[in-house]
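Usage

Read records sequentially. Each one opens with the input sequence:
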Amino acid sequence: MELKVLFCTLLCIFTAFSSCKKSDDEQHLNLSVPKIKTITHHGSQTVSENYEYDASGRVLNITYSGGTYDQYDYRMDKIIRKTFVDENFPPIPIRFSSIRRDW
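and closes with the structure output:
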């Protein structure tokens, strides 16, 4: 009698686990945050910022309405921002480090 109960219990457990197979055609939700394209500040003078992103969603360029722009370069554990003010002046590099603080 105990063997029958054990057999029925194991059969029920096996049936439950074998019938709970994941569907291969499940649709995954895209939970990514939408990217900002333009920010406009209104005040005494209207100023706007235009953003460009790479395929990974990282900021590549920010162009300001005054003509200056920032370029971002991602290298290993660093983010390098170059600010271009005028064609006659070289870019101003600013380095950000996510790991080391020795800059």
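Summary fields computed downstream for this record:
- The mean pLDDT is 74.
- The longest strand covers residues 47-53.
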